[in-house]
User: Fold this.
Amino acid sequence: MLHNVPEKTMHRVRWLLTIGWLVLIASLLYDPLTPLWTQPDNLASPFRIDPDRCIKIRDACMSQEPFAMGALIWWAMIVPTGIFILLVLGHEFWRRICPLSFMSQIPRALGIQRRRNVRDPLTGEVRRELVTIGENSWLGRNHLYVQFGLFILGLGLRILYVNSDRVALAGFLIATICCAILIGYLYAGKSWCHYFCPMAPVQLVYTGPRSLLGSQTHHAPKPAITQSMCRIVDPQTGSERSACVSCKTSCFDIDAEKTYWAELRKPGRRLVQYGYLGMVIAFYLYYFLYAGNWDYYFTGAWTHEADQIANVFDTGFYLYGYAIPIPKALAVFITFGILIAITFIWGVVLEKLCRTYMTWGGRPVSAEHAQHLVFTLFTVISFWTFFSYGARPSLNRLPLYPLLAFNALIVVVGSMWLYRTIKRTHAQYEREHMAISLRKQLHKLELDPTLLDGRSIDELTPDETYTLVKVLQGFSQQLRLHTYIGVVLDLLEQKATNGSGSFEFCKKLRQDLKLKDADHFTALEMIATTHPSLLASRTPSSVQMHDAVTLAKTIARQAKPSNAHRSDP
Assistant:
């Protein structure tokens, strides 16, 4: 929703949120105000404590003393708000306001990012380039494992050390800020967000192919600055321009749905999606397993528990009046591991059952689509499960009717997201994306308006556009090839695909136009002659133009598979 808001405005918003976050961190170290809200005689405050109420940890009642609310505000108000934003407004909203993402860009703003010497193999010229993380590097391939591991570690440390110890929580947040700034110095772009941030897997889960109110990049005219892509304000013209350094080929900040489908089978993707539900269940369940009751969690007593750090090696499990002698430091991660394993197995089994059931029903689905269906189901269950517990230490203090209204909101929002997402397919996305390029080519044909029932080409749906394209089968081979070349060129300019990936990306279009596979490489060679930079790995400014043409043609020939001379079936 915020992708069209001017960058200058968003810059001010990020500064305000960052200052607010820093004030909250400072309040964890010194807070003379919020303890007044928890005084037992403050009848106007819903957060006042009840000194006569016994909140037990196992067999002992916790001492009830007025407490500073910094931890409660952070864990039971701010964090749940972030989860709600992700599902409803999407990563594009969150990434444009996220203080941590903002602070990771401080080295870029100061012009002190790390650079390295790179020698151009064609000219021999040595230049200083920003450092990015290669997508074929170990981290580029396996970052989801790293981020999910950091997420698990962070939640474990939260239960053990920083839930109620305000100094430890302040140190934890400051350390996270320092890590983001350090990564922003070491690597260009949004490398912190893409490869390191522990919240990135959560964003991936709750956004899905698209959030409830998020924008749809593939419908936007190109070129355009979309969603939360990196952008700066040109100091000379005052206009916004892209600041993308290609730190990630399929970028979540440029087109979330494209990234969703492109990385559906990426290593660690299943673990994140299915394991996250296990983490949600395990995290809240552990409060019961530790204390032996739900009062400990729902009253928010865990946000002001005394001597939390000293209790790290306390008894970790207390079930039905029996203490199990496993240290809390170990019990937390045992709980996490068991629930992650259970939900991961559930997810994989459900994928197979989904394919089997759909096949029996005469509607066979691909492994990709079955995975999408189960991903969608796990996301909405995670959302509903989270808000059955998350924020409840604050929400349960509301009067009955506002509380019921919030519960209804969560059910409705989750149901709407499920309805929109469960029907979505990869083919549908590609058809909508391709329709933009097809319309441009149809405009050039000067079709008889009577064929469109008085509508313009731009008013046609993606399916109607494809149907109209099939009419081109009756046209000459030269016209169909010309149309195909125009579409491929437009897709390359939009960066919807690249030279090596365009063969498979445009396969369905070739079938619709009755073109051969070899025609695709004819198209690439023609594009390499007129637009070499779209296929070359370097920009024309770094090599001479004739070298770029040669390089682009080589890429076009190398992309040709061994069976490319055969026609499509």
Notes: The two ends are 43 Å apart (CA to CA). The beta strands are 56-57, 60-61, 115-119, 126-130, 231-233, 240-242, 315-319, 322-327. The first strand starts at residue 56 and ends at 57.
